[in-house]
Amino acid sequence: MEDNLEKIISLAKRRGFIYPSSEIYGGLAGFYDFGPLGTELERNIKDSWWKNMVWDREEVVGLDSAVVFNPKVWQASGHVDNFTDPLAECKACHKRFRADHLVKDQAEEGKLDEHGAYDPDDIDEIARAIEKINCPECGGELMPPRQFNLMFKTFIGPVEDTEARAFLRPETAQGIFINYKNILDTQRLKVPFGIAQIGKAFRNEITPRNFIFRSREFQQMEMEYFVKPGEDEKLFNFWVQERKRWYTEELGMDEDKLRIRPHTKEELAHYAKSCSDIEYKFPFGWGEIEGIANRTDFDLKKHQEFSGTDLRYFDDVSKEYFTPFVIEPSCGVERILLAVLCGAYTEISGGRTETTKAAKELEVVMKIGRKLAPVKVAVFPLVRNKPQLVEKSRQVYELVKGNFACQYDETGSIGRRYRRADEIGVPLAVTVDFETLEQDDVTVRDRDSMKQERIKIEELTNFLKEKLQN
Ligand SMILES: [Zn+2]
Question: pLDDT by residue (tens digit) across 339-357?
């Protein structure tokens, strides 16, 4: 399984899904660039989320807030004081590690006497455990851990002093809270209602790892759902189920590879009453792809206190003011994208096309769902040394290309071209052959069933549209 991740990383780079960032300068740890196919896939994931969360729901609206806020936002939210991870540094090689991860790994291997559960925010508890652990890189002694704030700092204007210090947002959620009043005043919404946002967030992770799973720059898709206190638990449970449904029914993820994991009391963030993660079974183990949290009225009350602005809600029915509770489904685009790639990666030994069978090659098929596939349709001439076939193929390509993400390919044998299309998960391949010239029809091959059908060119676009629906 671990090997699969290496193969997926290699394919992702080779075929243009994901590149290490700044690669010509040796890269930059924890940052990635999305290539042509990664960009399409990412857009399809975001579009599906936006449709499901915003367009399909009357009571949910969208937002696109700034990345840099007034720094007081992060004091109010608790991020300046609490958004930390414990860092341990080696006295000998000076490598830095997540102290809580070191403790957890050692505890899982049974090398510590301590029981598995401990409080990752309790630095003293971690410090006691760290005394018994050596540097995993060189075996050297570790310094006592200290809390490290994960927010990226920057400065506003020409003077770099504490007055001008600001942060890149470590979550998109606060952009929603600080616009809650604007939206309430301009949008005629009544509780329960939601504000959804997709955007970049930045965390200065001590140890980015597992490819794009834990990176320093990433995209979040978050929705804050404002509810009447007392209705929060019911709506929290609703959103946990509703969000899981999106992964299976809309993204087509395998039910067996998803699970809901409620947080223990020790794990809960400082603002949360309850939280459940939706986890995906990655090659490196179960990992969170979404968290659904009951943030209570913590954020609105804090912003009310720090800003001095009244953020209460007036209920027309009961004629009362109250501060809404907030249910937050929050997920990471890159983590979902990685889960999609891992779920799609399929090796077929001995091949399945004429060419790969003859060569007894291992063939890779990315079985990415039709809605998410970065390229929907590939168009090939059967051979490229017949000008009439090439010309006809170009006409077919021009006919369908405006409707879907589409590729034209005439390089190499037809078998090679099928194989290349399979490797990036193209669901439908259209081949123009000699019969096409006489009958004006083409062959459409389905990636998953391998079924081939002859379709009249005039019916082709509608046929492809229909096939891509399900
Ligand atoms: Zn060391």
Answer: 999 999 999 987 777 766 7
> Rounded to the nearest whole angstrom, what is the distance from the C-alpha of residue 96 to the centroid of ligand 1?
8
Give the chain's domains with CATH numbers. 2-83+152-342 (3.30.930.10), 84-149 (3.30.40.230), 361-469 (3.40.50.800)
Give residues with Cβ within 8 angstroms of 10, minimum separation 6. Answer: none
CA atoms within 13 A on the CB side of 174: 24
**pLDDT on residue 104:** 85
Distance (angstroms) between ligand 1 centre and the Cα of 56 equals 53
- pLDDT (average), residues 161-190: 95
CA of residue 421 to ligand 1 center, whole Å:
45
From ligand 1's centre to the CA of 357, what distance in Å? Answer: 50
Q: How far is the CA of 130 from the centre of ligand 1 (A)?
A: 14
pTM exceeds 0.85, yes or no: yes
Single-letter code of the amino acid located at 248: T
> In the chain, what are the helix, strand and coil shares in percent, each to the nearest 5?
35, 30, 35
Distances, alpha carbon 299 to alpha carbons 101, 174, 176, 225, in Å: 28, 8, 10, 12
- Is the pLDDT at 215 greater than 90? The verdict is yes
Percent of the chain with pLDDT over 70: 97
Pairing between β-strand 84-89 and β-strand 345-348 as defined by DSSP bridges: unpaired
Distance 205 CA to ligand 1 centre (A): 19
| Distance separating alpha carbons of residues 212 and 334, to the nearest angstrom | 6
pLDDT in tens, 379-414: 999 998 999 999 999 999 999 999 999 999 999 999
